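Suppose a colleague, Dr. K., hands you the sequence of a protein chain of 125 amino acids and asks what its three-dimensional shape might be. Before reaching for any lab equipment, you can write down a predicted structure in token form. Begin with the sequence itself:
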Amino acid sequence: MTFPVKDTVVWCEIPVTDMDQGMAFYGAVFDTPMQQDEMGPNPVSFFPKQGEDDVAGHIYPGKPAQNGEGPSVHLHAPDTLEATVARAKAAGAKIVGPIIDLPFGRFQYAIDPFGNSLGIFSKLR
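The predicted structure, expressed as tokens, is then:
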């Protein structure tokens, strides 16, 4: 039996070596406080969703890939790409390369303070 699939990616989990630092970094990137949740077997902190249909995710205590060598998770910029990238950089991200323009949006790569590869993405409106 097959089911129609709207989105291929349904969730992301980003490992961090320190939850307090992770919540501070991603809270700065999203420009909103992040809270630790203890509902599962490990503490997590959920990313804010911008819309009903957004793919969601969280950070959790784990071992990140180093120097951006793992997969890249692309996260929506909550406002402008430039403002979000500036907050990420101020919070400790290493910005990698220029802004990349696509027909449907723009993004820029970064490496978070833990070594995870990120794409900060903004849809064209």
